[in-house]
Amino acid sequence: MIPIMLIDDHPLAINGIGAWLCGTGRFTICGTAENLAQAVSLIEGMNVLPEIIFLDISLGEEDGLDFIPILKKNI
Known about the structure:
Blueprint (H helix, E strand, L loop, with lengths): L1 E6 L3 H13 L3 E7 L2 H9 L7 E4 L2 E2 L2 E2 L3 H7 L2
Parallel strand pairs: 1-2, 1-3
Antiparallel strand pairs: 4-5
């Protein structure tokens, strides 16, 4: 199974996309976050990074793209 992380400020999007992907039998959700602080905490605590990250670039007042440099430091 392919590990995926979902980052979105809408729980409906996280739950819907997560359920759809898991339903295919090919993916597993290894973490979810609703904001950048949660995403940073989650990624820094992982021993093995997910193969795919779905990132909402508009996280309310936050710019989701600010997560990319943080992700690069953890690769």
